[in-house]
Amino acid sequence: MKHGRWRFLLGALVPALVLHVVFVLSPYAQAFWLSLTDWTGVAGEARFVGADNYVRLGGDSLFLDAVRNNALLLIVVPLVTIAIGLFLASMLRTSSARIGQGYRIVFFFPQLLSLVVIAVLWGFVYNPNTGLLNSGLRAVGLGGLAHSWLAEPAFALVAVMAVLVWSSVGFYVVLFSAAIEGIPRELFEAALLDGAGKWATFSRVTLPLVRESVQVAFVYLGIAALDAFAVVQVMTVGPGGPDGATEVIGLSLYRTAFTYGKFGYASAMGVALFFATLTLAVLALRSGRRERLELA
Amino acid sequence: MNPDSQVRPYPSRRTVLKTAAVLSIPALGGCVTSGKEDTGGAKDSGAEKTTENPLGVKADAPLEVVVFKGGYGDEYAVKAEATYQQKYPSAKIDHKGLQKVGEAMQPRFVAGTPPDVVDNTGAGRLDIATLVSANQVTDLADLLDAPSLDQPGKKVRDTLLPGVVDDGTFAGKTVALNFTYTVWGVWYSKSLFADRGWTYPKTWDEMVALCAEIKKAGVAPWTYQGKYPEYINDPLLSMAAKAGGPDLVKAVDNLQPGAWKQDGLVQAATAFAELAGQGYLMSGSEALSHTEAQAAWCQKKAAFIPCGSWLEAEQKGVAPAGFDMVMGTVPARSSSDQLPVTAVQAASSESFLVPAKAKNAAGGQEYLRILFSKQSATAFAEANSTLPAVAGATDGLTLSSGLGSVRDAVTAAGSDTFTYRFRTWYAPLAKAVDDATGELVNKRISPADWSTRIQKAADAVAKDSSVTKFTR
Amino acid sequence: MTLLQTRRTPVEAPPSPATKRTNPLPGIAMFCWAVVTALPLLWAVISSFKTDDEILNSPWSLPASPQWDNWARAWTAASIGRYFLNSLIVVGAALVLTMLLGSLVAYALARYEFRGNRLIYYVFVAAMFFPVFLALVPLFFVVQQLGLLGTYAGLILVYTAYAVPFTVFFLHSFFRTLPSEIAEAAFLDGCSHGAVFFRVMLPLARPGLVAVGIFNFLGLWNQYLLPLVLNPDPDRYVLAQGLAALSVSQGYRSDWSGLFAGLTIAMLPVLVAYVAFQRHIRAGMTAGAVK
User: Which residues form the ABC transmembrane type-1 domain (chain A) (predicted)?
Assistant: First the structure.
């Protein structure tokens, strides 16, 4: 039996571990090394350049644009998404189960679609002349509000944010409404008896009890906001434009590696992104309990 | 096969750059390093060189031809093989039409058993600069100096359109010959212009005056493929090249200090800033993809659009009947321009080479001599509505309106063609130029800012020791 | 996501007192968001039946007559059919492999004590928090050196490798909660370790497998970055990649109606499957709960 146990364990673990080491761990480890070289993809020609690539990052205005944009995405997208998500989830609580179920299904739709499909679709929505948005505005006499959404620096990043929020709200509505349903009904009734208003009920009963779900949401949304690659690459002018207005780190990295062939420099961008993600995760989870994340 | 390659015979520069960079640079790593020690190659010239056989082809040596089977198919290459067979009946010819030339050829270059001719084109082609540095390609000087197959008294070199030899020259050696020819200009509908009594302008002042008239008529004078600002760059840089002549282009490509501050460039930028400032660009253009902008143009919502000579093929089925698109050359900025108004920006593609270690290198070159004959090129032009790189190949043919205008432009230009190389040499600089021009034509920066910004980017590239520099 | 909802949705509650007071705000808010969500999707579906001219000139109108031809063109001429098939092959194979390897690892780590157990667990789970972008460049070269660039096999293995960590993470806690009595009884009956896993534990874990399977399916089906880098051959493009190429780099020959049809083809199966699966999962869950 002992013998069978080890054989089983080896059989269970080794194939997955091999895949994991070859395709996941070793690339991650190599990235750190590559980021210290000037490798351009020709075998045997990687030269060690120390921290050169990192110094260069600091002076790369396009990359700094990307960092700024990712930071803005990181602040706005989670906040807005969570606010809308919580709002709709607490609305769902008070609606009938049947209707609520229907809404939940509809809200969830964007979550099921590839970001590419979403980006292509919204590219059409934002089209300045024939898009759904501008022609809708014109149809209701608000033509003055029509803009070249993706081509004006003031709106391009906002347009990207809107798409990211649109695509993720549904998931968090479902996440939060599940958490809210877990709150004992008596608590709401007690609040009602105390004469608490809607806002008071929300802020004193609902919010504290779904705090952990919100924390998890921040982490997931933050990771999505640090990415944003697919939407930007498919939808925006340039892509990443106009003039860097929607540049994100992922796009810079992709272009640097696979268009310019500067693999060492691209890896340095990857390492920078890694530390950003790590910081985010640590900050968001420090106050929360780890097990909560596992539940999610 | 990817449906697109059928409808866009000329890949835009965008596609070319992308595919070249994505696939060939890394893919060649192994190939090149392992081939490095070998120099020269198996020179088995075989037979004696005669006037009938200027390249000394061994009549019974087998010939292997590998052709990229993309938008143009490979029929034209098969025809040339048939001619070869007629000339050398005892040669055994092996033809391969492939879509992924690099993938199939890389191992054979590594193994030292490449075919005799490779059409190194399409997504996943081999990086030619890398092949050159690894001594994997034959110097085609003999071929270029050999007599043309069907144009008596001319060398092959002299039958080609201007710039073709340069395009295939790396580090002083001509190692590739490009078979097709692309020209950039400004397009309009001949029928629309005839209806309205508009005439295509020769000078920028005329252009501005005409734009005012067009706008009054309720049509937007210009549109452009705003999602990809490089399209509007082409007429701007063309105008600058005409103003400053070849020296301006060279200064730009060679990253000379202050190159982007040259008057020609600043003037051209001013011209396009004015176009935007006067409201002569169709509103919304800045966010349109190339298909969207071109479709709006085909719907006569705008009069002019900048594009390369592939436009007609790309708009097949979109342009209404009787639209009769034609390409005009970029108007002259001023009377003191260094190049005539007929000068055009032109470049060749569809790159044929003979591997250095080909068993029948002489046969490979002979095959190219046949392929680049006038007869073969004419057949290609007829079949593909595309200008081949052989001069005069379309003479006497009835061409569609667009291709006809391209041919006429090339004829009128004569030797006054130019091309910027910095786009392929320094991709990050190209992006900086695109971004700046996008801002310029959206009135967010001034022409002076434009040149300052780009100069800064060019200086940064020049200073960057990690970038391999080229000069011309 | 789906699993959350289904795992936690309690028995349907009677309408709460709030609904009795007819406050219109919740209804309006939810209706508005439903419109915002559904409108672009509906618009894409409707546009897929219009002519190019109708799309360009009257974006809000209904088609004069439905253009079924758009769909046919998208499916064949624009290769959506081929991309769809490629996605099916790659995602199907990767999903099977992921579920098999992921559940094996999760089970082994959850139910067996041995030295290095925790270490292996963390080695897997930590990868969930690494941005894929970090691995992108070296991954490209790893796959290339293995000769797997642009092959189904390469994509399947990489998809699997990147889906296993979440699968392990999720199923690990699931296997821990399963009762051990049945497994012990099976061992006493002389079952091997493998047999206990495949015949006893795996069926018990079905609800969890379904949930994580759906999660993985969506993630893999919608994957864009990995195929973009690792799958350069247009003949083997997966759906998301093909759509992006059609709309971005190549322009799909100005055929908007065809592109909308392509978008719809990409959207519908997933949406339909979701609506159908909703019920299925709930049934699976209740069955699991009754046991």
Answer: 67-284
